[in-house]
Specification:
heterotrimer, A: 367 residues, alpha+beta, Cytochrome-c3 Hydrogenase, chain B, three-stranded antiparallel beta sheet, 8 strands, C: alpha+beta, 2 domains, 5 strands, binds iron/sulfur cluster
Chain lengths: 367, 181, 151
C-alpha cells in the first residue's frame, strides 16, 4: 500500500444515489470540495443481453432490446429491426417507415422530457419535473394506443409493423404537436431565463469537440460541443432524408449548452413528426419476408441516432434462425466514459449536474 | 427451439464483393501484405488484416484518412476455428462520412495491442471485450472486468459458456444463496 | 414606482395564485383516484392473458397447436393436450402460463392462429406469492380477480 494522502477523501457515490439515475457507482477522490479523480463502477444492471440474443430467434429477441434503454424503447426497436432487415436485404414499406419515424421522434421527445425533468430535479428545480411528466404522458398515451404498452413497447417487427394505425392516431399526434412547442416555451420560461439555472450550469462539465471525438462521444453531447453530426442527416435511414429539419448545435460544450441542444432537438422532432403525419403513405405495413427469419450468412453493422447518441447493432449471422453474435453499441456506455474528464476539478455538487447532463440510462450502460 | 423443416441451404460463406478505392489503397500501400482482403458486404466495407497490422492500420486511418471516431470494438468467438477469435474494430470518419470495419483473427494465447493510445474511447470497450471473452489487451492502462463482478471466473460471451451457467462460488459467497437459478 | 406598486400589492403572488386557482378546474385535473376510479387503458393494452372460450358453448377455442409456446421468448407457456381418437384432434387438457416471467411482448398472442390466447386490458395481476403468478387453465379462462375494496 502506498502512503495515504491525508488531504484526500474517497467518497462513494451510489449505487443507490438518486442523482446517479439508476445503479451507477462513482468513486470520487476529493480534495476538499474539488474532485481529483472519478471512477465509474458499472455492471449492477448487467443482464447479458448479448448472450440472451444468441439463444433466441431473431423475432424473439426483439422485446429484449426495449429493456436496454427503457426510456427510448422505440428507438432501440427501430435500430434492431433495421439491422436485421439489412442482413436480410429487406426494406420496410413506405407506410411502415413513416410510422416508424413518427413514433421514434415522439420517443425522442419523451426521452428528452424525462431527462429534462430529472436533470432539473438534480439541480434543485423541482417544478419542471411535473410539467415534463405531464407532457410525456401524452406521448406514452399515443404509444399505448398504438401498440398496447407504454414503456417497453415492442412496437416494430422485423420487416415492418405489427399493428395498423388506430383510428384517431393522426389527430392525437397533431394535437400533441400543436400544444407541445408552447410547452417547451414554458420550460424555457422556467429555466432558461432563470439566473440560478444559468449560473449553476454555465461552464460546468465542459468537453470540447476534439475530446468528444477521442472518447467516441456522440449525440447531444457532441452537438453541444459544436459538431453538427447527426446520423439522421449523415446516413439517413427509414426515410429521414424526406423530412426537413435542422441539427441544433451550440459551441460551448458545457452543461447549459447541452440543455439548449436538447430543447432544440425536441422542437426539431415536432417538426419532423408534423411532416411525417401529414403524408403517411398508404399501402402495406409489412414487407414480404419469409415467415421464419433466417438471414443469410454474413454480418452487418447498422446504427441509428438514438436520443442519447449513436446506437449500433452489429449482427453476425450464420444462416440459422438465431443470431450467431449480436453486439450492441450503446451510446450511454461510451458517453459515460467521458465523465472523469468532465468532472476533473469540478465541485462535488457539479458532479451531480454532469452525470445528469450525459443522459445515461443504466439499463443501456450495463445491458 | 424446434423450427419448421429446413428450406434449401443458404450459401455458407458471405457473398462479398471486392472493395476498391482510396482507403484500401492507402492500407495496402502502407501495410502491404498484412492486408489480407478488402471486401464489401451489403455495401459495408471491411478489411481483413493480420493481427500485427491492426494497430498500425488504426493509426494510419486515424492520422492519414481522418478516421477520428472509434465506434466500437468487439469480438466473435468461433470455438471450432483456429484461430479462435475474431477481433473487430469499427471506425468512422466525420469528414468523409464513412464507416470502416477492421477485422483480424486472434488465437487464444495471443494478446492484441491496446488501441487506447490512439483512441481514448477504446478504454472501456476493450475492458468489455476482456470481460466477456477473456482477450487481454497488451498495454491497456486499466484492464479489469467492467460489467461482471471483478472476482467472477469465466468469460460469458464465449460459446462454451452456457446461458444459465454462472460462477457458483461467487454467487454463494456474495449473495448467500446456493444458486442463482 | 411601477415596480414598487407591483411589490406593494403583491401582484406577482396573486399572479402565481391565479395559476394555481385556474388549475383547480375539474377539467384540468389529471390525477386519477385509483382504486375507486380505474384508469382507462387503451384497447390494445397488453395486460393479463386470457384463454378465450366460445361465448355460447363455453368450450375453449384453443386447438393445442403449441404455437404460442414456441413463439414465447421466455418459454413460459406449457400446453398439455391429449389426442382425441374420435376426432383425430388434440384436446386441451392443461395450460399453464407463468406470469412472473412474462414480459407482455405480445408474441404469443400474435402467434395464435385462432385468437384463443389474448392479452387483455386487465392490469391488476399482482400477487403475494410467486406461485400465485403461475396461472393454470382455469385462471386463464376466468381472468384475474383483483381484491375489491369497498368504496
Ligand atoms: S407476452 Fe411474450 S413473454 Fe409473455 S407469454 Fe407471451 S410471448 Fe411469452
Ligand atoms: S397458439 Fe393459440 S391455439 Fe395454439 S396452443 Fe396457443 S393458445 Fe392454443
Amino acid at each position: 500500500m502506498t502512503s495515504i494522502d491525508s488531504n484526500e477523501l474517497v467518497l462513494n457515490m451510489g449505487p443507490q444515489h438518486p442523482s446517479t439515475h439508476g445503479v451507477l457507482r462513482i468513486v470520487l477522490k476529493l480534495d476538499g470540495e474539488r474532485v481529483k479523480s472519478t471512477e465509474c463502477v458499472i455492471g449492477y444492471l448487467h443482464r447479458g443481453v448479448e448472450k440472451i440474443a444468441e439463444n433466441r430467434t431473431y423475432v424473439q429477441f426483439a422485446p429484449y432490446v426495449d429493456r436496454m434503454d427503457y426510456l427510448a424503447a422505440v428507438s432501440n426497436g427501430l435500430g434492431y429491426c433495421l439491422a436485421v432487415e439489412k442482413l436480410m436485404a429487406a426494406v420496410a414499406p413506405p407506410r411502415a417507415q413513416a410510422v416508424r419515424v413518427i413514433l421514434t421522434e415522439l420517443n425522442r421527445i419523451a426521452s428528452h422530457l424525462l431527462w429534462l425533468g430529472t436533470h432539473a430535479l438534480d439541480i434543485g428545480a423541482i417544478t419542471p419535473l411535473f410539467y415534463t411528466l405531464r407532457e410525456r404522458e401524452e406521448v406514452l398515451k399515443i404509444f399505448e394506443n398504438y401498440c398496447g404498452a407504454r414503456l417497453t413497447t415492442h412496437a416494430f417487427r422485423i420487416g415492418g409493423l405489427q399493428y395498423e394505425l388506430y383510428e384517431g392516431f393522426e389527430q392525437q399526434v397533431n394535437t400533441f404537436c400543436d400544444q407541445f412547442p408552447g410547452k417547451i416555451d414554458e420550460y424555457e420560461e422556467l429555466l432558461s431565463g432563470n439566473r440560478i439555472w444559468r449560473e449553476r450550469l454555465r461552464g460546468v462539465g465542459v468537453i470540447d469537440a476534439a475530446t468528444c471525438k477521442r472518447y467516441g462521444v456522440t449525440g447531444p453531447m457532441l452537438r453541444a460541443a459544436g459538431v453538427p453530426w447527426d446520423l439522421r442527416k449523415a446516413q439517413p435511414y427509414s426515410g429521414y432524408e424526406q423530412y426537413e429539419f435542422d441539427v441544433p448545435t451550440r459551441t460551448g460544450g458545457d452543461t447549459l449548452d447541452r440543455y439548449f441542444v436538447r430543447l432544440d432537438e425536441m422542437r426539431q422532432s415536432v417538426r419532423i413528426v408534423r411532416q411525417a403525419v401529414a403524408k403517411i403513405p398508404t399501402g402495406p405495413i409489412m414487407a414480404k419476408i419469409a415467415k421464419v427469419i433466417k438471414p443469410p450468412v454474413g454480418e452487418a453493422y447498422v446504427s441509428i441516432e438514438a436520443p442519447k447518441g449513436e446506437l449500433g447493432y452489429f449482427i453476425v449471422s450464420d444462416g440459422t434462425t438465431h443470431p450467431y453474435r449480436l453486439r450492441v453499441r450503446p451510446p450511454s456506455f461510451v458517453n459515460l466514459q467521458a465523465l472523469p474528464h468532465m468532472a476533473k476539478g469540478a465541485l462535488v455538487a457539479d458532479v451531480v449536474a454532469i452525470i445528469g447532463t450525459i443522459d445515461i440510462v443504466l439499463g443501456e450502460v450495463d445491458r | 427451439m424446434a423450427e419448421e423443416p429446413k428450406p434449401a441451404k443458404a450459401p455458407v460463406v458471405m457473398a462479398t464483393v471486392a472493395w476498391d478505392g482510396a482507403i484500401p489503397e492507402l492500407l495496402r500501400e502502407h501495410l502491404g501484405g498484412s492486408v489480407l482482403d478488402t471486401l464489401l458486404y451489403l455495401d459495408q466495407p471491411f478489411a481483413v488484416l493480420t493481427l500485427a497490422a491492426m494497430l498500425p492500420a488504426l493509426d494510419l486511418l486515424h492520422a492519414e484518412a481522418d478516421f477520428d471516431y472509434l465506434v466500437d470494438i468487439t469480438a466473435v468467438d468461433y470455438p471450432k476455428r483456429e484461430p479462435r477469435f475474431e477481433l473487430i474494430y469499427i471506425v468512422y470518419s466525420h469528414s468523409r462520412n464513412e464507416r470502416v470495419r477492421l477485422k483480424a483473427q486472434l488465437p487464444v494465447d495471443q494478446n492484441p495491442l491496446s488501441a487506447v493510445p490512439i483512441f481514448l474511447g477504446a478504454n472501456w470497450l476493450e475492458r468489455e471485450v476482456f470481460d466477456m471473452f477473456g482477450i487481454e489487451f497488451a498495454g491497456h492502462p486499466d484492464l479489469r472486468r467492467i460489467l461482471m463482478p471483478e472476482e467472477w471466473s469465466g468469460f460469458p460471451l464465449r460459446k462454451d459458456y452456457g446461458i444459465t451457467q454462472m460462477d457458483n462460488r461467487w454467487v454463494r459467497n456474495n449473495l448467500g444463496i446456493e444458486s442463482g437459478q | 414606482m411601477k415596480q414598487f406598486l407591483r411589490r406593494f400589492f403583491l401582484i406577482d403572488l396573486l399572479e402565481g395564485l391565479w395559476v394555481t386557482f385556474r388549475n383547480q378546474d375539474p377539467k384540468r385535473i389529471v390525477t386519477e383516484q385509483y382504486p375507486s376510479q380505474r384508469p382507462e387503458v387503451s384497447e390494445r393494452y397488453r395486460g393479463a392473458p386470457r384463454l378465450n372460450v366460445h361465448p355460447e358453448t363455453q368450450e375453449t377455442l384453443c386447438i393445442s397447436c403449441n404455437l404460442c409456446a414456441v413463439a414465447c421468448p421466455e418459454n413460459l407457456i406449457v400446453v398439455g393436450s391429449v389426442r382425441n381418437p374420435e376426432t383425430k384432434r388434440k384436446d386441451l387438457v392443461t395450460f399453464t402460463y407463468d406470469l412472473s416471467r412474462c414480459m407482455f411482448c405480445g408474441l404469443c398472442e400474435d402467434a395464435c392462429p385462432v385468437d384463443a390466447l389474448e392479452l387483455t386490458q386487465d392490469f391488476e395481476i399482482a400477487s403475494y406469492t410467486r406461485e400465485g403468478l403461475i396461472w393454470d387453465r382455469q385462471a386463464l379462462e376466468e381472468g384475474p380477480r383483483p381484491t375489491q375494496y369497498r368504496q
